[in-house]
Amino acid sequence: MQLKTINDYLQLFWSFFKIGAFTFGGGYAMISLFQREVVERKKWVEEKEFLELLAIAQSAPGPIALNTAIFTGYKTKGVWGSVAAAFGMALPSFMAILLIVYFFTDFKEQPDVERVFKGIRPAVVALIVAPLWKMGKTAGISLKTIWIPAGVILLIALLGVSPVYVILGTILAALCSVILKRS
Amino acid sequence: MIFWQLFITFLKIGALGFGGGYAMLSLIQFEVVERYQWLTAAGFTDIVAISQTMPGPIAFNCATYIGYAATGSVWGSVLASVAVCIPPFIIMLTICRFFVIFKGNPYMRRVLAFIKPVAIGLIGAAAVMLITPQNFSDAISFIIFGVVLLAQLFLKKISPIVLIVAAGVGGYLLY
């Protein structure tokens, strides 16, 4: 009994360690990996639950990959299961970045490396801009609602308002609108 | 003191990071670059580039890197990485427990509907804040920006990792 339980936690840890190690380029990239390992191989989550799980993981704050790990771990083994899964998910990225940090701080002073990064920096900005169009379409942004993202950009990037207030304000506005509708 | 600031900052980022990796960037950038000045805008851009070529969520990668950069110690990395996980843990476990109630809740649904267009603005703001003289030093920068943007929009199969590596090679050859 005892041994079997430990084995369950280890399996959760190991599955999410693998997912964490091969998730390059942010949360959306891990969806197909997750589906293969957790839904098809281990069957911890059913196919029809999977879409609901994704919806929750995307709408809750925090990284999507972490949220899916917490959900799966909780569902199979309770709170400690979610700790094991989240730890597995986080560990590869933690180790990779620490290696880079040790290596990178001296490494970055070299003029050749600086040239490489001079080329990379504008590319990073382009990669952030690229998904906006598609995301705007899925979120149902039209000419009538374009002022919302435009206003957010204005507030944060040009007027220096903290995103914290923008997010809290949005939550408050949503709650007020439901209350007003009811009364 | 700096450890405490780091902990609170990443707790905040974990709690308010709606809309996935890119939408969290403006939040991280605002706290880390503008407010506490643990990093410059160019240094932050380098981390985003590194995060995209490394495994794992961008928020984790940023926490680990910034934790080290701000304190010069591995414990800073550990602290920031743990802090960024705590709020999602509490929130996700609560949602799992009361899933059925949350699903039909009109307040919850309205909050999610309102957050969607705002998250797009958050990503846009992250991009605008990164258009700095350090990141765009000359005409070559704008050419790289344009080429990568077009490639990402129209060549769906190219991975961002390939584009970052190509831009790095381009920078090495052109500068």
C-alpha termini separation of chain B: 41 Å
Report the radius of gyration of chain B as a whole number of Å.
Answer: 18 Å
Number of helices in the DSSP assignment of chain A: 8
Strand content of chain B: under 5%
Taking the alpha carbons of the first and last residues of chain A, their distance comes to 55 Å
Number of strands of chain A: 0
What is the mean predicted local confidence, pLDDT of chain B? 88
Q: What proportion of the residues of chain A form beta strands (DSSP E)?
A: under 5%
Helix/strand-derived category of chain B reads: mainly alpha
Series of H and E elements of chain A: HHHHHHHH
**Overall morphology of chain A:** globular
- Quaternary class: heterodimer
Give the chain pair forming the largest contact, with residue counts: A-B, 90 and 105 residues
Q: Which stretches of chain A of 5+ consecutive residues score pLDDT under 50? A: none
The helix content of chain B, as a percent range, equals over 70%
Short description:
The complex is a heterodimer of chains A (183) and B (175). Chain A has 183 residues and is mainly alpha-helical. Chain A has helices at residues 2-22, 30-41, 47-59, 64-107, 111-129, 132-138, 147-158, 163-182.
